[in-house]
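User: Fold this; C-alpha cells only.

Assistant: Input:
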Amino acid sequence: MNYHSYHPIDVVNGEGTRCTLFVSGCEHQCKGCYNQSTWRLDSGHPYTKELEDQIIADLNDTRIRKRGLSLSGGDPLHPKNVDTILELVKRVKAECPGKDIWAWTGYLLDELSEQQMEVIKYLDVLIDGKFEQDLYDPGLLWRGSSNQIVHKFKVD
C-alpha cells in the first residue's frame, strides 16, 4: 500500500484532534473530488512499519490529547489497501486504548466485501458513498455531498 500524506495533528477530519492518514488508490474517481492526486495506487510513498510505529506513537503521545485516527484518501477500503488497513486498525485498537477510528470510503456499507467488512469491525465511524458534485453541500458535517452517510458504530 502507498499513502499520500500523514498528518500527526489534524482538527478537520473527524471529531477532536486526530492523526490522519491519506492513502493512495481510489477506483471511484468522483467528479469534483478535492483529492484527485490520491487516485493512483502508485502515487505517494510506500507505507512502512516505521510510519505505522509513528502513527501509534503519535496516538499515544500525551502532550496533545488525540481522540483517534482518521483514514481517508484515496480510499482506505480499496481492495489493494484493505489488508494493510486491517492490520493498522487492529493495532490501533490493541495499543491505543480509548482512541476511535474514522474512515471515509466511496463504497456503500451494504455493498462491502467480506474482506472490507473485517475492517469495519474495528471502526467507530464510517462515512460511505461516492462524492456527488451535484449534491455538494458545504454545510454538511464530515461529508461533502448529501448522499454520503455517517455511520456511527461505537461512538459515545
